[in-house]
Structure prediction request, 97 residues.
Amino acid sequence: MSVEVAVSCVLCNEPTDQAHPIHRVCGLRSALGGIGHLLDHRYWCVLRQEPDAGLSWTASARCVDVLVARYGIGPVVDGSFPATSLEDVCGWAGVSL
Prediction:
C-alpha cells in the first residue's frame, strides 16, 4: 500500500508534483527577480521595496515567465528589452492587478 504525500513548491508553497519540488516559473522568478525588479528596479525595489510589484510570488513568477518568453532570457537579464508596462505583462500572463 502506497501513501501519496502532498508536496508544495518550496518557493510559493502551492501544490506541485513530487518529481518537481519547485515550479519552473518559481525557479525562474527566484533566479531573475520579481517582475517589478525587472521592469523598473529603481521604482519597485528602491522606492517601494516591492520587487514583485505588489503581486503574489506566483503571479510575479508567471509575469517573469511571459516576459522571458516574449523577449528572450538575454534581453531580460541585461535589461535591453523594450520598455514594457506592468499592465501589459500582467495581461500577457493572465494575471489581474
Q: What stands out?
A: The chain has a mean pLDDT of 94. Strands lie at 7-8, 15-16. Residues 22-93 form one domain.
